[in-house]
Amino acid sequence: MMKKSSLLFFYCYIGFFSLVFADGAKPIIPMPNDEASILLLMKSSLVDPLNKLQNWKIASETRSVHCNWTGVWCNNGGFVEKLDLSNMNLSGIVSDHIQGLSSLAVLNLCNNGFETALPKIICQSHFIEDH
Questions:
Q1: Fold for domain 31-124?
Q2: DSSP 8-state assignment for residue 16
Q3: How is the chain split into domains, by residue range?
Q4: Which of 4, 21, 66, 106 has the most C-beta neighbours closer than 10 Å?
Q5: In the record, which residues are listed under signal peptide (predicted)?
């Protein structure tokens, strides 16, 4: 018969690995499709009177469909590196969701009609280059 401490260790061991390898576990590394969702969330808080972002929609199961969207540049892994929304007559709110674009290095929002301050995360981000 097993000792109580051995049995307790066994159950803790099984419980730990059940949690680690559970089917519902979320991946630690974001997938490019997650970035498409982030961009769509950002778009929902913008006013686009000239319909410049009309191709910002998921039309297929293509892995990096968002890399072909207006103003979006991606790296070879399908992650957004540059977001150039300049001169599009956009207004509204630049959403905090932008912080989910972990590879973003260049952000250009010049010559738009944003009346609110940018999210603090943009100013604090170490990954945004000064151009």
A1: 3.80.10
A2: H
A3: 31-124
A4: 66
A5: 1-22
